[in-house]
């Protein structure tokens, strides 16, 4: 037998098999880091809610592989390494160093609770890679517990700002710096534990990266990275080439306000087009810098845009620099999508969600009709109850971000009660909440009449009603879409709006605004937080009668809502169907 | 006395039989009968008894692993089910944990709930977190709801009330009422199925149990009848997901315990075989047609997890921790439009299967690549019973992969195997890291139809130094069933900060669980043998929401200090640090009741006289671009002599599997029939 030759693939210099094997080995490194982070961290935010990300970069600072459970981190890791390389010349970065940062303006962060640690990896004298992780820290100081207040007026009210700083020098951890950071937090012990885990996670990632380099040689390592980034770019370019051509496609989402309850509605404008083979997302026309903390710093914007591109064009696409090279973002300075220091950014996720909704909307006419979807609830509603426990006076904070309705899709109803777009966080089980906090949950339910009507209906919002068990229970809440529901697509109806109600169903019932900084409620008072539903997809008149009947049977909507959305004829048929069904099962 | 272990798979039902008085182990395999799995079980047993001239009266034990309940959920063939739940909480089942199943892909949806919304009925009752009644259920009103549910066509009812893990009285009152008013309904009550806090997981588990209950009962009834009519005098036992066996009656009440039971049996079997040959640190590597299951054994013990998803629905049950990835013999290899070669997770499954199996498959699979490379027998598998067509596979790899990439067919096929290896290796690394272990000290236990085919490559890729391939690796799950004990797990949520006073509460909770465990062990269906109770406390530091299990020798008045130091140690082992001064919380008290059954030794199989005698042929096998095509000896497993080493490259064939030994690897069969492969480094 003759020795076979491995000829080059159809693409010159590109080895498809070696690249795929390499991709798996790289993912092993980011998985190792992610598992280490999850296993060893102390705070529930990282350990259970997985509010962290890890990544591997090459020596030039290009993102090669990333592990994330939260899309809002997609761009943040890149910002960290860019910030690092901007701050320190290459020759000042030495083996055994590690760097820490969080600031959105000075260090490529997205909001202050997300603290990043970046570690250079050296093979001999050569800087061949960086390993990086970001973890959400429950509290980094600032005006309010948890450090994110919707009504903060500048970033100085949002906690400790860290430029890029050395946290390890030649392998020694800077304990003074860790102590400084811990002292600035309301939960110092957690900070120290989790920051050490972040440093150790990178050490682990660094070892794994070096092992891979040893195995493949530096040149092999670099060649495969080149292949991988080129492949990712080629793959995304094919998707971009498949988009419908033409003038920019536009969509505008309106925030209820600029973060403060008395603010005017703020537009988030997205225009999507293809220019010279690149995907251009232009946000010109979006509102001015917000007074409240809902500004989207540069890397939060990139994360949001990258999430949208991946979800809309190719969910399996690896998130690396190869993907990002073909995406052009335009955001005028001084606007809510490109704020200047010291504009507050703590609650940026609310605006990121609405922006993702705008970009999704703009893309719809361009993408494959078999993947089209209506607007989801597109918010990140959150509430926090805090106070002192009556039994021992200890301070507690009970917070949660709440799911809502997904958008109706071209091939099915929207999902009920889920997180969308840039977040995907677990809820707090009622039994856990009642065990840990002096709160009583009266109801946890899907919201009737919140789903937009359509050939495929939108998903339903969630409502939770909580009763205070002691006086002076403090409520904070941030939401949006209290003024207008999620628009439907291709003829579908809009979803229901969000509502926060104090003492619902009583004589003292009171509607509350979507942003509540501090409201004290007393024993026995209740607050109901209801999130918006998703928009419907397609003409409601085309929804099969059987599905309308099922929705009525399941109390997804009232008959009145159904008549308004689907018309009397369809609803009458549906009701007949239900009556016949009941007669049959009785017989 | 003869003991029979059975494992029901999607394609084949496997059988293993041992004689406790000694003698060779018998292996058998028949096609599964998915419409009624009990048919293949009964006919296979009868065939095996006949082939081995064993009388049914001499069979003293039949155990089986089954996916009946799991398949019912996947295929949604359970019964119409209702849920009675606390007022205000009927959507707990629908909201779940409010996450979407795929971060980026909006075509992936949450599974539809197993109980439709109109059949999730609210009862005006409420307990507080301490279990004190805030509102008692109005039984007259509940009776009306039950009658309505029954009249709407419901066949099973789940009952799930908030905080019932603390006080089951409301649930029990409703259960009793249902049994009185509608005795024909199958009833599952959350505090009896899994008395742990976190309502969604508890309700989901309870609902799933109710949903599969009636059909599981019918299946067990048929199985019993068929086995009895074959002349076997014993009742069949069923394997559960936590690595033990249950009598029929328990499975009828708690069918949810059997979800994922098959793969668990392979892990338990590996641990037992490992014990016989002195291997306690093991990675199990079970490669089937569509998936690879990886699991870790340390100190001779399998690792456990407390929750898994079954078709997207959480099942909260202690179970063997198995990491599953979508890579198996049927995994499809294809080029994407940007020029990358991807292997899996899509699978050709059993139908249409690999191209070379001639069942209509048209897409290249991992099995096709192995056949083209000569690693798998290019003529026939299953000891000649199943013909394969190498030519078809070769042509497909050429046109679908090799030509577009501009490489040779063998390099393309080898590339497919390399990518699958890299993918499987990733799973192995992640399982070991999850438990904080370094791979170098582990032995890879390769089984399932395709485990031994890929173990040599995977060990090279991961840096593992040793591989063990048990005899008839394709039937190890059936053998695991034979090597297991009867056991049942009990749990109660405690949620207390540990101090002298609360320890007494924990001891009291433990006593309640012990009473339940003893009562179960005393039932008629449990054989008279050595019985044990083992306690575990799930514990954490104050402020954590994540807990770790701490096994206890005893849960008694004086055991607090021993527990605390065990917990600190376990925390340090698992996470790298402990916080000695911090308060400890106990989340759950767990009890495992075990009845040890007599298993018999693994008997040495018949041995061959020499390597030469074992060599069936020499075949051209492609070993990669560096080595090319190499003349490779092919051995028949049953003819290999024990204790005689041989070097790779070599291939060992037997009925249910093919083992690849690569160059620079040494192999040897031990006295129990296991192949040991060592890597030279």
TrEMBL record, chain A:
<dbReference type="Pfam" id="PF02538">
    <property type="entry name" value="Hydantoinase_B"/>
</dbReference>
<feature type="region of interest" description="Disordered">
    <location>
        <begin position="477"/>
        <end position="498"/>
    </location>
</feature>
<feature type="compositionally biased region" description="Gly residues">
    <location>
        <begin position="488"/>
        <end position="498"/>
    </location>
</feature>
<protein>
    <submittedName>
        <fullName>N-methylhydantoinase B</fullName>
    </submittedName>
</protein>
<dbReference type="InterPro" id="IPR045079">
    <property type="entry name" value="Oxoprolinase-like"/>
</dbReference>
<dbReference type="InterPro" id="IPR003692">
    <property type="entry name" value="Hydantoinase_B"/>
</dbReference>
<feature type="domain" description="Hydantoinase B/oxoprolinase">
    <location>
        <begin position="15"/>
        <end position="540"/>
    </location>
</feature>
UniProtKB/TrEMBL annotation, chain B:
<dbReference type="InterPro" id="IPR002821">
    <property type="entry name" value="Hydantoinase_A"/>
</dbReference>
<dbReference type="InterPro" id="IPR043129">
    <property type="entry name" value="ATPase_NBD"/>
</dbReference>
<feature type="domain" description="Acetophenone carboxylase-like C-terminal">
    <location>
        <begin position="559"/>
        <end position="676"/>
    </location>
</feature>
<dbReference type="Pfam" id="PF19278">
    <property type="entry name" value="Hydant_A_C"/>
</dbReference>
<dbReference type="Pfam" id="PF05378">
    <property type="entry name" value="Hydant_A_N"/>
</dbReference>
<dbReference type="InterPro" id="IPR045079">
    <property type="entry name" value="Oxoprolinase-like"/>
</dbReference>
<dbReference type="InterPro" id="IPR008040">
    <property type="entry name" value="Hydant_A_N"/>
</dbReference>
<dbReference type="Pfam" id="PF01968">
    <property type="entry name" value="Hydantoinase_A"/>
</dbReference>
<feature type="domain" description="Hydantoinase A/oxoprolinase">
    <location>
        <begin position="202"/>
        <end position="489"/>
    </location>
</feature>
<protein>
    <submittedName>
        <fullName>N-methylhydantoinase A</fullName>
    </submittedName>
</protein>
<feature type="domain" description="Hydantoinase/oxoprolinase N-terminal">
    <location>
        <begin position="3"/>
        <end position="181"/>
    </location>
</feature>
<dbReference type="InterPro" id="IPR049517">
    <property type="entry name" value="ACX-like_C"/>
</dbReference>
